[in-house]
């Protein structure tokens, strides 16, 4: 039986490419998307082995039913790639961010990810080698933000950045909780990638932007857990 992976926000960008690369490795891929038309079209483009699953990260009350559906159709889950994310406060300084921007960002980037992961944990525990990959960002790293010369003048998007810091903390604590299991939990910084979020000026192509997620979704038994990576290089929190 092939390995089963769920990629959230897989209708475009890094998520779609991650789905494509996992399919090429022989995985069955559940293509998570909130929009049925876009999600079905993405699954159809990806071809055999790709199955659309409607999944809105801000609707956590739908997650138990989604877990039941995956269980009845596939029996288990080998990899959960928490890729869906939003950035709603680009260029907004911390002194001006609104509580609504913070709430909406955390709803998708943090609360949704934690709730979905909790709903799917029983299925990941049925895998011989469960892998959880949380897409965060180097701009969510407190160390990078406070020391990197590259980010010296960057003082915006506190909603987005802090949502990714919060998700990094979830990675560390969940990895500790699951350390005696077969499940590994890691955070991925994909790089600055040419997607709708990253923009055209981003230096990295989507094919390379998906590589960190694929690396962490396919880690061997002796691979790391509770760490933060860009490609195969560990990053500071
Ligand atoms: N691109 C970069 O340079 C970069 C850098 C660091 C980290 N990241 C992270 O990498 C991940 C993927 O980013 P990307 O560049 O591929 O972004 P993207 O092109 O904007 O795609 C984001 C995906 O997330 C989905 N999404 C957003 N809100 C959702 C919700 N409530 N429920 C379900 N799906 C939702 C979008 O669906 P719709 O099409 O329906 O909106 C889309 O499929 C994100 O977590 C992002 O924060 C990206």
CATH superfamily: NAD(P)-binding Rossmann-like Domain
What's the helix count?
Answer: 8
Estimated helix fraction: 40-55%
Beta-strand percentage range: 5-15%
N-end to C-end Cα span: 37 Å
Overview of the molecule:
42% of the residues lie in helices and 14% in strands. The protein is of the alpha/beta class and 237 residues long. It has one domain: 3-Layer(aba) Sandwich (Rossmann fold). It has an 8-stranded mixed beta sheet with strand order 3-2-1-4-5-6-7-8, with helices on both faces. Helix 3 (63-74) runs parallel beside helix 4 and helix 4 packs parallel to helix 6. The chain is globular, with a radius of gyration of 17 Å. The termini are far apart. The protein binds NADP nicotinamide-adenine-dinucleotide phosphate. The site of NADP nicotinamide-adenine-dinucleotide phosphate (NAP) has 30 residues, from helix 1.
């Amino acid at each position: 039986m092939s390995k089963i992976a769920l990629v959230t926000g897989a209708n475009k960008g890094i998520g779609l490419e991650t789905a494509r690369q996992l399919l090429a490795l022989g995985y069955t891929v559940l293509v998570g998307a909130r929009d049925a038309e876009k999600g079905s079209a993405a699954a159809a483009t990806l071809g055999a082995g790709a199955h659309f699953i409607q999944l809105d990260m801000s609707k956590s009350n739908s997650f138990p039913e989604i877990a039941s559906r995956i269980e009845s159709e596939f029996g288990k889950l080998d990899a959960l790639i928490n890729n869906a994310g939003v950035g709603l406060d680009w260029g907004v300084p911390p002194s001006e961010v609104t509580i609504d921007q913070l709430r909406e960002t955390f709803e998708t980037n943090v609360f949704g990810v934690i709730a979905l992961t909790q709903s799917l944990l029983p299925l990941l525990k049925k895998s011989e080698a469960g892998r959880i990959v949380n897409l965060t960002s180097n701009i969510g790293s407190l160390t990078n933000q406070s020391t990197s010369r590259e980010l010296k003048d960057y003082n915006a998007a506190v909603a987005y950045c802090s949502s990714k810091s919060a998700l990094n903390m979830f990675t560390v604590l969940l990895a500790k909780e699951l350390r005696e299991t077969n499940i590994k939990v890691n955070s991925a910084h994909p790089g600055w990638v040419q997607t709708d979020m990253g923009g055209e000026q981003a230096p990295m192509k989507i094919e390379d932007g998906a590589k960190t997620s694929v690396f962490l979704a396919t880690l061997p038994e002796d691979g790391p857990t509770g760490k933060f990576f860009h490609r195969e290089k560990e990053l500071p929190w």
